[in-house]
Write a structure and sequence with these properties.
The strands form 2 sheets. Strands 3-2-1-4-5 form a 5-stranded mixed beta sheet, sandwiched between helices. The protein has a 5-stranded mixed beta sheet with strand order 8-7-6-9-10, with helices on both faces. α9 links the parallel β9 and β10. The C terminus is likely disordered. By secondary structure, the protein is of the alpha/beta class. It binds 5'-O-[(R)-(carboxyoxy)(hydroxy)phosphoryl]adenosine and zinc ion (ZN). The site of 5'-O-[(R)-(carboxyoxy)(hydroxy)phosphoryl]adenosine (KG4) has 21 residues, from α5 and α6.
């Protein structure tokens, strides 16, 4: 039996969790505590790094205590401490990693520094027991990536955004239209009453041989359309949101279809390959429906873990720690590891200009 305490502080969620694995049985999430700072950042329309770091300092001890209490475990029952060490906002990373190191030092347990993106990448194994390899689409406020997940520590980034992350595009669109932060859910809500055909927004990168994403041109088109008909009625806002969402679904669908085809070529012998989605944008029904339809067409299983494990949480970090222990890789990023605001998952992909980082939200 392995029990790992996970800590996540890379952006605006302060989170701690205990995950256990006994032999070959299913892993068990013994606790999963997430404190969102959304309200503290809402007035600014986005995450403010200094506010985030301060809020992590104030909340983290209590969140860890709550996660231990919920799990019924004492620190002495824990086998290792896993903490997000990057990528993300460095203030928050320092708070989480240093707290984890303090616990590790005081208890004599090993420390495992975890890449936040690896947490997202391995979640489908925690929730669905998925076997390697599979394809991951990560669409959050800070990242928009397609990753071939081949094994623990074995990731290939096949596509990333060359400018804005998709969640960021939703948030900026919402802000332009006077909708509250976080924008994604509010854009989706407004779009429900809108006409998706009223505005012919661009479908960035559609048809391009280059695998990457781009959303900044779409954002500009939305701004120009809004300015041209301002002041906006509620119906105008709804129509812009619906048209924006339709453009996003088309653009994303085009990119993902390419990646599914590439996955088929790369792993021709797999009977039932899988596409996994992660990140807050995966909550969007229009986007989810599009991805599901694409998967059905291409013969892929569509795996969407429960939303609270798709967005930032510490269970995925604890689980990544367990996976690293299982793969004999727990010592790779240990006690001496320092936080890295930039930390590409595959270690080889060239950084992209912008690379979809709003602050550093993943
Ligand atoms: O994964 P997440 O909770 O946090 C990180 O970025 O790590 O993702 C948050 C992002 C925000 O940009 C938010 O606007 C977007 O996900 N989002 C949505 C929806 N719900 C959240 N975007 C589109 N439709 C939604 N329903
Ligand atoms: Zn994330």
């Amino acid at each position: 039996m392995i029990r790992v305490l996970g800590i996540e502080t890379s952006c605006d969620e302060t989170a701690a969790s205990v995950v256990a694995l006994a032999g070959d049985s299913k892993p068990e999430i013994l606790s999963n505590v997430v404190l969102s700072q959304i309200e503290e950042h809402a007035a600014f329309g986005g995450v403010v790094p200094e506010i985030a770091a301060r809020a992590h300092v104030e909340a983290l001890d209590g969140i860890i205590e709550a996660a231990l209490a919920d799990s019924g475990m004492a620190l002495s029952d824990i086998d290792a401490v896993a903490a997000t060490a990057g990528p993300g906002l460095v203030g928050g990373l320092i708070v989480g990693l240093m707290t984890a190191k303090a616990i590790a030092a005081a208890t004599g347990k090993p420390l495992i520094a975890v890449n936040h993106l690896e947490g997202h990448a391995l979640t489908a194994r925690l929730t669905d027991g998925l076997a390697f390899p599979y394809l991951l689409l990560l669409v959050s406020g800070g990242h928009t990536q397609i990753v071939a997940v081949r094994g623990v520590g074995d990731y290939q980034r096949w596509a990333t955004t060359i400018d804005d992350a998709l969640g960021e595009a939703f948030d900026k669109t919402a802000k332009m239209l006077g909708l509250p932060y976080p924008g994604g859910p509010n854009v989706e809500k407004a779009a429900a009453a809108g006409d998706a055909t009223r505005f012919a927004f661009p479908r960035p990168m559609k048809g391009s041989a280059q695998p990457d994403f781009s959303f900044s041109g779409l954002k500009t088109a939305v701004r120009q359309a809004a300015e041209a008909i301002s002041p906006l009625s509620d119906q105008d806002v709804a129509d812009i949101c619906a048209s924006f969402q339709a453009a996003v679904a088309d653009a994303l669908g085009d990119r993902v279809a390419r990646a599914l085809a590439r996955f088929r070529e790369t792993f021709p012998d797999m009977a039932a390959p899988a596409l996994v989605v992660a990140g807050g944008v995966a909550a969007n029904r229009t986007i989810k429906d599009r991805l599901q339809a694409l998967c059905a067409e291409a013969g892929f299983n569509f795996v969407a873990p429960p939303m609270k494990l798709c967005t930032d949480n510490a269970a995925m970090i604890a689980w990544a720690g367990i996976e690293r222990i299982g793969a004999g890789m727990a010592d790779e990023n240990g006690f001496d590891f320092v936080p890295r605001s930039r930390w590409p998952l595959d270690g080889i992909s060239a950084p992209m200009v912008g690379s979809g980082r709003r602050g550093a939200k993943a």
